[in-house]
Specification:
alpha+beta, four-stranded antiparallel beta sheet, 207 residues, Gyrase A, domain 2, 43% helix
Length: 207
């Protein structure tokens, strides 16, 4: 049984930016597109002054997350996104490619609760033993997976427009979001604010 600390993400290369041209199309002013940085200022004005976020729907961003099943279940509720997720139906975690073990993501509260920590570790260990026992007795992974807990680690690729990413990050970094969701999304927001500040640097995180 392996444990991961929450949470990881990797960002796919940014798609070619089409939003400036899309915005200019609205006014038939494509001839005013320049390479001197003024396009970034135009995007900033659309976001902060006009609220014209529809133009951000013309470019998409893909992010790969490593998280637990509980957080993944929340993420896939965002209907304007496309997803590809590690399948417990086809992945056999008793095989060498998975180091013959299950990997679980340690909840943030575990370090602050000795009783809860011991209980969580015991449940994960028991789930792994029962999972492998079911496979040993000729069950398929799609059947044996019924004993797996929500702490099971999973990979999830999530693709959507910049406009929807803004909505997701505003929602999932707020104080009302689950602590483990915030642990996943706040580092992502900070990275995007560094790499694409013109799109994301106005989003504030409540401490």
């Amino acid at each position: 049984m392996a444990n991961l600390n929450p949470f990881q993400h990797t960002r796919a290369p940014i798609a070619p930016i089409a939003k400036v041209k899309a915005a200019r199309t609205c006014y038939r002013s494509e001839d005013k597109i320049t390479d001197d940085g003024s396009s970034d200022q135009k995007i900033k004005e659309m976001l902060t002054t006009l609220g014209h976020t529809a133009m951000l729907e013309h470019s998409v961003l893909s992010v790969e997350f490593t998280t637990d099943r509980a957080i993944a279940n929340e993420l896939v509720r965002h209907r304007l996104c496309s997803f590809a997720q590690e399948s417990t139906r086809y992945c056999n975690y008793s095989k060498d490619k998975f180091s013959n073990e299950l990997t679980f993501v340690k909840p943030e509260w575990v370090n602050d609760c000795t009783f809860g920590s011991n209980l969580w570790l015991g449940i994960c260990d028991m789930a792994e033993r029962y999972y492998k026992a079911l496979l040993t007795n000729s069950l398929k992974p799609e059947d044996a997976r019924c004993v797996l807990p929500l702490s099971l680690a999973t990979k999830l690729v999530m693709t959507t427009s910049y406009a929807e990413w803004r909505h997701i990050l505003e929602l999932r970094t707020s104080k009302a979001a689950h602590p483990q969701m915030r642990a996943l999304m706040i580092p992502l927001l900070k990275e995007l604010q560094e790499t694409i500040p013109v799109i994301f640097d106005d989003i504030k995180v409540e401490e």
